[in-house]
Write a structure and sequence with these properties.
single chain, 307 residues, alpha/beta, Rossmann fold, 6-stranded parallel sheet, two-stranded parallel sheet
């Protein structure tokens, strides 16, 4: 799928933003960022069913919306292997509904896809023009969503992201913190390469994009700087967790191969994304993954200490 040309200018001059999926990991982070910047926005979550056009239309009625940001997604990678219809309903049909509605309302639409749309057989970071070839049903559903998005609206921003984590909701970092407290050892895959994406940093960039009223629509890749394995990530998580007093002690980490840790869905062996286009064309800030992981622990510590 080729990215469309930059849109010539504002579609709907009204600053209102519709944040779809506002109670998820990224949605909550974006809501905080929008509040900080005093953006006018409307938030919806599961009470608005993106798989039903009528539900979306009912929520949008009477609201002046210039931007739609879709954080609603089916993200259960392994479960998608046994319930592909549900994954497709949310990640493809739901995205089609949002794309059609955004076009009707004259609103720009921001949507998030995944590194799992790629096979993982490259040896250099994936750029936006790389051909998707997903191996998992989750990856397939996200790719179909990309196709539906582009088929019905040209004023969209599609961001493929990888290894998303943040202080809200389940993710790899929270899983590791739990394991470090409950287990005597941890086995972590050491032959899958990728880049983490810190939700708070992504939210800052997305808010900046909206604040600038950017019309440079198209397909973009975004993740933190650096290429690591899950084992590398886990090792650094443990070091920082100990530093911040979130675990009582270090435990042995055992590096294992993908074959020694079978999962229902096939993961890409290499899914590092090239964020260069987002930096050049949108002015995104990309920080090293270690720096962002430290920021995560600082953010988590603040939440723990807040009344």
């Amino acid at each position: 799928m080729m990215p469309p040309a930059a849109h010539p200018g504002p579609l709907n001059p009204d600053p209102g933003i519709w944040l779809v999926g506002a109670k998820g990991m990224l949605g909550r982070q974006l809501a905080l960022e929008f509040e900080k910047r005093k953006f006018v926005f409307f938030a919806s979550d599961q009470e608005v069913d993106i798989c039903r056009r009528q539900s979306l239309q009912d929520f949008a009625r009477g609201k002046k919306i210039g931007w739609m940001v879709n954080c609603a997604a089916y993200t259960a990678v392994d479960r998608a292997e046994s319930e592909p219809e549900k994954a497709l309903a949310i990640n493809a049909a739901g995205v089609e509904n949002l794309s059609r509605l955004a076009a009707e309302m004259g609103a720009r639409l921001i949507h998030f896809s995944s590194d799992y749309v790629f096979a993982g057989d490259q040896k250099e970071p994936y750029r936006e023009n790389a051909q998707p070839r997903p191996f998992s049903r989750y990856g397939w559903s996200k790719w179909q969503g990309e196709i539906k998005l582009a088929a019905h609206h040209d004023a969209f921003f599609l961001f493929r992201i990888s290894w998303l984590y943040g202080v809200y909701g389940p993710n790899f970092v929270h899983t590791m913190l739990r394991i470090f407290q409950e287990k005597e050892t941890a086995r972590v895959v050491n032959d899958q390469f990728g880049s983490p994406t810190y939700a708070a940093a992504l939210a800052e960039n997305i808010a900046g994009l909206i604040g600038a009223d950017s019309g440079r629509c198209g397909v973009y890749h975004y993740c933190d700087g650096g290429a690591i394995t899950w084992f590398d990530f886990a090792s650094h998580i443990m070091d920082l967790a100990l530093e911040f007093g979130m675990i009582p002690k270090k435990i042995p980490l055992v590096a294992v191969s993908t074959s020694a840790y079978p999962t229902a869905a096939v993961r890409p062996r290499y899914s590092v994304l090239d964020s260069g286009k987002a930096v050049r064309e949108l002015g995104f800030q990309v920080r090293d993954w270690r720096m962002n992981l430290k920021c995560f622990f600082l953010e988590k510590a603040r939440l723990k200490d807040s009344p």
